[in-house]
């Protein structure tokens, strides 16, 4: 009542008295729930009074209110240091006091309150206190950087910036532990911003370009160390961009250290700024400045013969390319360059060079002085958010964790750019748990690598925005992105999926830390003949791991386009010699970081080739066998053939990793596993276990496409046992092993296993009779050199027999043929 009437002084007096009374009782009996609730109500009223005073600009009264509530909570916190309400309330009061004192211009007192807030939180922390601590850290960093801007003494500026960067380093573990990715990114950006600004001010005190270059080298080493400790992909990009920027600055100063600016070093600097710009758009300023400066310096390289009107025109063009928000002094420095050469008759060559160096140095100082200038706006937006939340994505589920879900008023709408993920009020249970879970598979949403997710409620002025990177963690050290590739326009699949698994013979060997394949014209012809044989029999053809070299892919793409068949083209290692050719036929360019990845190309009709990257190498692919070992991949695709039919792909040893397998199984109906595997038995045991003890509902089929292969010069043939394991019912369960084509008397053959997998099959007991879950047949592969290996006459007889069998029209003719032969 008094609050609604605006009687704030009276409310403060009454609530202060009541809170002290309740506090004294709770010090003697801290478990009394009635007095706990009464105290919390009165303390919250004191907070509200302070908040009203602060908004009204009555700062002394607001300070008195906050300190009244703070004194009471601190007294109780001494006897109950683990109490979540008291920790949260005390942290909130200290943060608000810090904000208030900052607004009053009492910067050191404000910093003291934020620092004191960091001391009160104890482990284990709860959602509310995690949020309060994150706020204290960000406020403290922001206050130091703002203070640095206001200071005029460069040494005082550097002191504030050093404090900001130091806080960032000290608190990284907190953000990692509680998975506060958004706040951690803000803090890291703010810390790096402070570090770069510190560096720029330190460098400015140094007039010698050579010494400045050395300072940049020190900073570069520090950033590289930070990268080594980092795992988060977004922050790694930020560090990489900063490293490129610092490398560029170092090269600029090395160029300026020579008697006349060295253009080659400047060109190298421009390349570094270009790399920084590609990763981090704010580096665009530096790129534009130095590409412009390079053009001018190239033009004035011969100082005695400078065409001043032409130079003015060039400067004008350079100024047009600069971003609108570029520092005005940079524009002035560019505009002043032609003036130097208008006065050249009055100056000696040495003086001319000195003046040019001064202009270039002015640009060097200012080009990107505040590398992360936008971060202050981002932090401001963060503190203006109506509610605070954190996102965790794992195994197709998005967890939204609210610091204080009571602040989410009414219907909550959560959406990406083109998809609504959630559109209702939070339930009572979700509010109590501070947690909302969105199952992407249930709503049929397959993310495309990264999203910016918006959260809005009715009447909300600005949406809460959170970027998210959909990396899936696999085990402790590996991460992968799982994408969906829509193949519906490339193939038309009937109710039954027709699949061909090829068991092929080949020789593999190791060279320069990669696995390679022995090939010739006969091998290429064999591959293309196999494809021709199944073009009317299969929707998807799967070749074994390592069995298809890069050179065959264009021809296979032509086959896929003409016959509307998807081809899983085994796998191969990415090597330097072919690096520049991938962009012509693949959906993405490949770079040096992709070298030594084992990739499985998936050739889709009327589309560029997409690929999966092997995440987990077999023992033979690791550093114990090779000098460097296979490089872990980060891309996995699921292939959508119909709305109700998706196919996953795992490369050999990956299939044995339960973590990765459990990411894919819920999203896929069929998983194909191309492999070069000497011991396939373990793979089938894993597949049968997943069928008999399914991790999720629905029918599944696992197809193993293994080679029969020799390694290096060893003539022993390994592999075999290509086959399929699928969901069966009670009547067909005993046939589970019939889909596995094992060697007979240790003899391994080349063949194509054709499988037609029914999507309508129902494994429930006592339902339809006579269901057929899967139909299979074999096409044997014979090579001429094998046929004629005994004698030419027997070889001809065998070929004639094959022709006779092919002419048989029914089972009786085939039976008679068998008796005769």
Question: Would you spell out the secondary-structure blueprint of this structure?
Answer:
Layout: H1 2-5, H2 8-28, H3 33-55, H4 59-79, H5 84-103, H6 107-120, H7 127-150, H8 154-177, H9 181-204, H10 209-229, H11 233-257, H12 263-279, H13 284-299, H14 308-321, H15 328-342, H16 349-366, H17 375-383, E1 389-394, E2 397-402, E3 412-415, E4 420-424, H18 428-433, E5 435-439, H19 440-443, E6 450-456, E7 464-469, E8 471-474, E9 478-486, E10 496-503, E11 505-511, E12 514-517, H20 521-534, E13 540-542, H21 553-563, E14 566-568, E15 572-573, H22 582-585, E16 598-603, E17 610-613, E18 635-642, E19 645-649, H23 658-664, E20 670-675, H24 681-692, E21 701-706, E22 708-711, E23 718-719, E24 723-726, E25 750-758, E26 774-781, H25 784-787, H26 792-807, H27 811-820
Parallel strand pairs: 9-18, 10-13, 11-22, 13-14, 19-20, 20-21
Antiparallel strand pairs: 1-2, 2-5, 3-4, 3-6, 6-7, 8-9, 10-25, 11-12, 14-16, 15-16, 16-17, 18-19, 21-24, 22-23, 25-26
InterPro entries: C-N_Hydrolase_sf, TPR-like_helical_dom_sf, TPR_rpt
TPR repeats: 91-124
Keywords: Coiled coil, TPR repeat
